[in-house]
Amino acid sequence: MDSSSLDAAASVLAKSKHLVALTGAGISAESGVPTFRGRGGLWEKYKVEELATPQAFRRDPVKVWSWYKWRMEIISKARPNFAHVALAKLEEMGLLKALITQNVDGLHRRAGSKNVIELHGCIWRLRCTSCDYAEYIEEPVREVPPRCPRCRSLLRPGVVWFGEALPERELKRAYQEVSRADAMLVVGTSGVVMPAGMLPLLAKERGAVVVEVNVEESAITPYADYFLRGRATEVMKALFEGICERLGKSP
Ligand code: OAD
After folding, report:
1. What's the pTM?
2. Disulfide check for 155: which of 119, 146, 239, 241 has CB 3.0–4.6 Å away?
3. The ligand 1 atom nearest the CA atom of 52
């Protein structure tokens, strides 16, 4: 981690008026939740078209649900890490105004973040494929595939699959936050899945400063004002302390 970029980024973020964060799978990696791309990523072992599309679900709901049940089991054992906690604390301090995440694991809320925009849905939300029944669950599903308690149709995970539109309300909120942002903190995303991946570019085009935290370069790095290389927990700890120091608050 380059300490001069870290100091400069901490100063810019501490002075910002409307800081918005965008997170991806990399922020939950150190909590033990696998990422999608890169070495050991889910899309190296599993095929998107067999597990994360509406067609796959129609073809083989048991297979798709077994995969989601397995991911629910991993996530239910995971705990928010310091990077999640730092974002929750930045919001509590009044600096971070909104947190846009592509993650479906719910770890941001568990860390205490309030204004969370879940662009790709939430794995803990189940919804019926026929009626308007929906529920939040706290433990992995038992029965696979789970059925609607109202109409007995199949329930599906409340996540966005490839080929599906993003939830309209969340997307609108995300664009609103980005249009107001004067600083954007991007943590642990490859930035290749649209439209989430282009939000930092939109913010930048509107004059926001973009600070990126990642273990490696991403699609966002070429235009990031500050690229802080390192693991999310370590960089966010240093960045959080730097921001607190500049705001005269104890971390
Ligand atoms: P990816 O798996 O594409 O990227 C994870 C990013 O996190 C990479 O850029 C890694 O370098 C970085 N990373 C890994 N470990 C890290 C660590 N400890 N600290 C910091 N960075 C780390 O995940 P996303 O960008 O979130 O969509 O993927 C976007 C979307 O693609 C997901 O929401 C999912 C997936 O297909 C859907 O399911 C719709």
Report:
1. 0.97
2. 146
3. 38
